[in-house]
Amino acid sequence: MDVFKFATPEFIFGRGSLQYASICAKRLGASKIFVVSDPGVEEAGWVEKLLDVLRAEDLDFVYYCDVSPNPRDFQVRKGVELYQREEADVIMALGGGSPMDTAKGIALIVSNGGDIRDYEGANQVRNPLPPMVFIPTTMGSESNISQFTVITDLERRVKMTLISRTLVPNISISDPLLLGTLTRELLIPPLYDSLAHAVESYVSPIANPFTEVWSLKGLDLLIRHIRPALEHLHIDDLEQLAIAGSSSGMAFTNASVGLGHALAHSLGGMFDVVHGTAHSLLLPVVMRYNLPACKEKMAKIGEIITGKRYGSDEETAMAGIAALEELREELGIPCRLREILPDRTMLSQASHNAVKDICMLTNPREATWKDILNLYYEAW
Amino acid sequence: MDVFKFATPEFIFGRGSLQYASICAKRLGASKIFVVSDPGVEEAGWVEKLLDVLRAEDLDFVYYCDVSPNPRDFQVRKGVELYQREEADVIMALGGGSPMDTAKGIALIVSNGGDIRDYEGANQVRNPLPPMVFIPTTMGSESNISQFTVITDLERRVKMTLISRTLVPNISISDPLLLGTLTRELLIPPLYDSLAHAVESYVSPIANPFTEVWSLKGLDLLIRHIRPALEHLHIDDLEQLAIAGSSSGMAFTNASVGLGHALAHSLGGMFDVVHGTAHSLLLPVVMRYNLPACKEKMAKIGEIITGKRYGSDEETAMAGIAALEELREELGIPCRLREILPDRTMLSQASHNAVKDICMLTNPREATWKDILNLYYEAW
To answer: For residues B75 and B67, is the Cβ–Cβ distance under 8 A?
Structure first.
């Protein structure tokens, strides 16, 4: 077995754990906290809740919320200016992937200088970042756990992936009660992002015994709880989904992801397609493409999804993929890429972008831009 | 579900990973490294290997090896003096639980002052410790992962357990090649310590979904690899045991342990009984005692040990306990406490010590000192 690394943040998990935000910030030496969130989270009332927790401990803070889905490079730059002007020293993000990834971008630039695009790719970060406490209000990105941040370069219309151990937050506070304001529609895309994390990290060539445990745990919990959670939005199921998200997060931050993420990043950068929606459309197609390179592992995935083994590894794997397609139909969400992207002429450019995505390095099967174009067509 | 915390160090795992010791120390800002090991590890040649790795990168270091099994308070004090005199700034431990626990004790006192006994119990540490890089040469203690350190107070003849998040090393470098110089006799006690970690963390009242995964993974790997590993001492099995040890380590550092550890600590403090040997004698007895309080979980344990389920939870659990007793006989190690402790008159005092052990707080079933005495007698 090759040498591998495994790093995760410190976790605080549980209903009501939002109240620990002040203690965590204090422990990390905060004198002024830079709080990053977005308008949606604000509307749900969580920003005010968090700020109340900080106020109750007389903690000083600055609030920044110029964050959009698929967060942009200029939103990082604006945040950096505010952080520096206000002389903040601890970064706290509250929200989904967008505020958390923006917060990481800001933390990176205030400590390392330059522009966010200077750090695209893996291991480009030199200096340690200011302490980070991240509080997710949804699942999917697991940016509160991961060494990833994904920021859109507006000029190139490319979603840049930045990977560095320094991007792992110090503390992740995961309070399942915060999932309680999500609607069914808001919850579906992150669930598919988590499914993609579990599957892609498991078949990654750099998967290891420590990540495999979490990939399978995450997948198992997702499969068990997606249907009941979406039907009733009950806290018990939401809590299990939060655990599932964290599980696949611990897997993919250390084993990375593959082709599916490369394809989804490219659609996000060019057409602003919601990341999780891209996965719901692409995951089965990508799994079928990767199958020849990892039959045994895909069979294990199939076994978890369907709850049984079929005649051969390949049959078991294919049954799993088919079951994912059935789930998608059952949920009544788009099943074809054309439903959200009527014009397919730009998919050729999307393929050229995708093949350069850093996640291609950790896919179990190689793919040319033409292979990728065929996959897009298959999903279209 | 209650709020829970989950923290682990950064891991570097794999054959040959010892060579990363320098990079890790540098990353933590080392200008002079305080290396702690013991005569046995030195004799096996690993200390020289590590020092060569440090020399190759021109890293300055001080070497300290006045460490015995069940390490003593005065060994911590002597280390503190040397650390301060030499103005070291990063602590590196190489060895089993004894050098690692001693190193933690030293790190604690140089940053927090006072005497080691001032910090007995949970959460008594105020200041952050100097950066720690730990390299285990055996399994069992998992001090390279855990927030525990156990130091013997010679005056009271008590093994003090200290628990604090600050005692988690920054980086754990686990190189399975280092297990290659262990003999069968050296390997058996740590294997039993790991078994006890897996079992006790799983039934702990503060177990949570994140720790349960690791308890079961550790137990499963131990059961699969103990026999072949002890027969051939082949690196492939040793590597799996190292993963098993780390797995149960990640579980117990966050879920703690119970009665079995309280009993073992007491025997260690009073009679210098090797910690893992105590577990090999006590574990089945402790499991039977705890069974009424956690039948379902003990059945899961039994299922993993025996590979099947019996009629009821209780039967499955009992089959697992019986299988552990068979394993012990098969290995030809002592099966009765009397074999290593001919006089049982002091067991009453040992019970009084055990009932005060902090691990009693996380046992699923309460026990008085008389219950404990009966358990000692049962094992005797």
So the answer is: yes
- The whole-number pLDDT of residue B163 equals 93
Helix spans in chain A (H): 21-27, 39-43, 46-56, 73-86, 97-112, 184-203, 209-232, 235-255, 259-271, 275-290, 295-306, 313-331, 347-355, 369-379
CATH at residue B336: 1.20.1090.10
Q: Which residues of A touch B4 (CB under 8 A)?
A: 11-14
Range of the domain at A242: 182-379
Determine the pLDDT at residue A127.
87
Closest Cα in chain B, distance from residue A13 (Å): 5
Report the SS3 class of residue B273: coil
* Integer angstrom CA distances of residue B361 from B258, B259, B365: 7, 9, 9
Nearest by CB to A3, from B17, B213, B243: name it: B17
Q: CB under 8 Å to A169, separation ≥6 — which residues?
A: A9, A93, A104, A132, A133, A134, A144, A145
Task: For CA atoms A207, B132, B144, A91, give the dihedral sign.
Answer: negative
Last residue of a domain, one of A132, A147, A178: A178
Q: Does residue A190 share a domain with residue A81?
A: no
- How much of chain B exceeds pLDDT 90, in percent? 96
| Structural tokens at position B75 | 């060994």
Q: What is the ipTM of this complex?
A: 0.90
Which residues of chain A does B11 touch, with a Cβ-Cβ cutoff of 8 Å? 4-7, 210
Residue A24, SS3 per DSSP: helix
Question: Same structural domain for residues B90 and B209?
Answer: no
Does the structure show a pLDDT above 90 at A287? yes
* pLDDT, tens digit (0-9, with 9 covering 90-100), for B297-309: 999 999 999 999 9
Residues B306 and B241 reside in one and the same domain? yes
B216 plus B172 within the same structural domain: no
Q: What is the pLDDT of residues B165-186, one digit of tens each?
A: 999 999 999 999 999 999 999 9
Residues B164, B37, single domain; the answer is: yes
Domain tally, chain B: 2
- Side-chain half-sphere exposure of A137, counting CA atoms within 13 A: 26
Walk across the sheet containing A32-36 and list its strands: A60-64, A32-36, A90-95, A132-136, A171-174, A10-13, B4-6
User: In this predicted structure, what is the pLDDT of residue B314?
Assistant: 98
What CATH number is attached to the domain comprising A41? Answer: 3.40.50.1970
Mind telling me how many Å the CA of B15 is from chain A's nearest CA?
Answer: 6
